[in-house]
User: What shape does this take?
Amino acid sequence: MNRNQFHKLFKTPGPVVLPVIHVLDSARTKRNVETLLEAGAQGCFLINHDFAPEAFLPIIRDTRAAFPSLWMAVNFLGVTGKDAFPVLGQLQSEGCQVDAYWADDACIDEDGINTEAKDIDAARTSSGWDGLYFGGTAFKKQREVAPDRYGDAAREACAFMDVITTSGVATGQEAEHGKIETFRAAIGNRPMALASGISPDNAQAYADVDCFMVATGINEVGNFYDIDPLRLAELMAITRTLSKGSAQ
Assistant: This one.
């Protein structure tokens, strides 16, 4: 997938806004989905921050049943694609389509060995699941990658995922602009997602990122779980003025 195909999929020339919902139960998840749809967000990620993946599956099924046309993606916290892809394949076979999967750690080796990433790729192929893969590369709270190897990691990632996904150093922390510039130069016309630190205050500076995966920057202040409709609306208004490559 290239950048043009990615933006065409979501029908927007600028950064695609995909709120990340830290789910607690089905009812609260559905309220947050309604909020993001009212704001015009292009879809969402659901993540099980507080409980095991097994308890997450009924919420995924309930959300899909309530919103059959929603672009819905998931992150199974602390799980790599090797374990996640078979689950996604099973959900798909049951008629519960998950449109994308995000892994915090895609197990990319900047030295090019990539044994684990290859095993994950094999699991994806054998699962039969046909969604997009957002793979965490030089990602927060994972194995540290030296800044002078960011470009190598990003280039290696291109062979294993649809959307190269990175972050700042911690949840809610902005990514260094130099890191984003290095990733962009390394991956060329491949889509890139940023999964921390985006807010209405800084979004314009990250216009060369193709996808904003955002939680802290649009949630109610002091609330880890619920989207603030006004903050999300402000972010959506800003991204509508942007097109890829327009960062200043």
